[in-house]
Amino acid sequence: MQTTDGGNTAAVRWQKKQATGIEVKVEEEQSRDVETNHTTEVIGYMVFEAQNPTLVWEAEDGDLFGAFEFGSDPAASGGQYVHVPNGIGTRFSGPDEKHKITFSFEIPKDGIYRIKAAVHAANGNDNSFWVKVNDAAGVYLWDALQNTSYEQDYVNDRNGADPVEVWLPAGVNTVTVYLREDGIRLDRIELEPVAAVP
Q1: Does residue 30 sit in the same domain as residue 127?
Q2: How many domains does the chain fold into?
Q3: I need a surface site. Which of 37, 91, 115, 177 has the fewest CB within 10 A?
Q4: Are residues 108 and 180 in the same domain?
Q5: For the whole prediction, is pTM greater than 0.70?
Q6: C-alpha Rg value of the chain to the nearest Å
Q7: How many CB atoms lie within 10 A of CB 175?
Q8: 174 sits in which H/E element
Q9: How many angstroms separate the CA atoms of 78 and 56, rounded?
Q10: Domain region containing 112
């Protein structure tokens, strides 16, 4: 915040942060009075372009759709995670385009990669996602490691590959995580090279 037009204490906060944009707001606190209305202020910002390909994303930096939302937890990387809160309903029998998170990875060279993520999966009813890579016809039913501390886990395919290994071409590749069970939390997600094509 570059001005102090309002007389009450306030700070800049962000919300709805995505790879394509961010929404900022001035949040006034209530120590002087109970109302939190605030006048206009001038906000400064800088944008940095990555010099190297990004193979790691904080989950909250993905593009969220449908029932997915942000959550705060100091134990999560960067203090945030994404999830669908408990109560959305029954398990989804396949990917639903309405409820998803998409991540765009810039791959430096053709190769085989694994998808690794930090997840918080408290029990057997809150521990799975559907995962799709690019426009592949098939999807993976990922049963995540049950834990309550954002453990690293590789995307697997129930009754199939564990971990899943995918061939990706150089350039932009998309990993989409779809709702299957509510309650499971997704923290950080990354691509891990297994073998590069020379």
Answers
A1: no
A2: 2
A3: 37
A4: yes
A5: yes
A6: 19
A7: 24
A8: strand 171-179
A9: 13
A10: 56-196
**Within this chain, do residues 81 and 170 fall inside the same structural domain, yes or no?**
yes
pLDDT, position 83? 95
CB 181 within 8 A of CB 127: yes
Query: Between these two residues, 17 and 62, which has the higher pLDDT value?
Result: 62
Distance of alpha carbon 61 from alpha carbon 48, whole angstroms: 15
| Residue with token string 């759709």 | 65
3 state SS of 187: strand
Q: Which residue has the tokens 């942000």?
A: 70
Q: In this predicted structure, what is the pLDDT of residue 51? A: 46
- Which of these, 86, 144, 148, lies nearest to 117 by C-alpha position? 144
Round to the nearest angstrom and report the end-to-end CA distance of the chain: 48
Q: How far is CA 42 from CA 22, 25, 28, 136, in A?
A: 16, 11, 15, 45
Residue bearing tokens 């949040």: 27
Q: How far apart are CA 27 and CA 122, in angstroms?
A: 33
34 vs 151, higher pLDDT:
151
> Tens digit of pLDDT for each residue in 100-130?
999 999 998 899 999 999 999 999 989 999 9
> Do residues 69 and 153 both lie within one domain?
yes
Main-chain phi, psi angles of 61, to 5 degrees = -90, -5
* Cβ atoms of 187 and 59 closer than 8 Å: yes
Question: 39: which DSSP letter?
Answer: -
CATH number at residue 91: 2.60.120.260
